[in-house]
Amino acid sequence: MFFPDMFDLTIKMDMFEERKQRIIAFCEAVKTKKTKDKKKLLQIEKRLLQMVSPKNFMGENSEEISFEKNFQFLCHGLNEHTNKDVKKMTVVEVYSLIEMLKKREQNGKK
Q1: Residues 13 and 49 in one domain
Q2: One digit per residue, pLDDT tens: the chain, 110 residues?
Q3: Domain span holding position 104
């Protein structure tokens, strides 16, 4: 996906909490230099790595091809709602267009 607010909120919150715990554990490990704190840090890093599944970057169903197809699909969809070439728009313009479309949908307008 292209935009952060489209990800599942619970996954984002879990990741955020794990990253926060990792930072705290890292600071403790540096401060105390105890093996116990270093082990805790490694456990948190392992959990973080397990939250992200490996991706395939080669072949027909690779992430690169999937990303390109999704990008083209997004551009075609957004082109229906603007007179600008979406591929030439800035990130801010694309985000603004998506937010405007969301608000329009919420208000029942098309």
Answers
A1: yes
A2: 445 555 566 777 788 888 888 888 888 888 888 888 888 888 888 888 887 777 777 777 788 888 888 888 988 999 999 999 998 999 899 889 999 999 988 888 65
A3: 77-110
